[in-house]
Amino acid sequence: MSYDYGTGFALWRGMVEMIVAATTMAVMGLTALNAVHGGLVAGRLARHIARRHSHLGLGLWVPTFGAVADLRIWLGTWRSILGSRDPAVVAIRLDARLVVTRYLYVALTSQTWAMAVTTIAPNLA
Would you state the pLDDT for residue 83? Predict the structure, then answer.
């Protein structure tokens, strides 16, 4: 066992590197799972719109704007679809919020962890 001078914490050789590597793997795994969940939510939204709003066609997904009024109509259409009280849309919105919240949580905690390691062992970070 060796000691790192200046912090007062006992550090074994490679302990900080091992903790950083394990944390990195955990963050990458959670990020990958979150990306898969986000893809599934986007797929559910696309399937729902294709089933319930098929009359809108491809213009909803790939718009062409000839004027500012076209943009306003397109945004209004999306607002009416996503703001609907339909239980399926409510569930999709809830899942989308969960994906965004989980991403922000992982990003903030990993950054906090990096700052903590830098404080504990400044010469190793």
Answer: 92
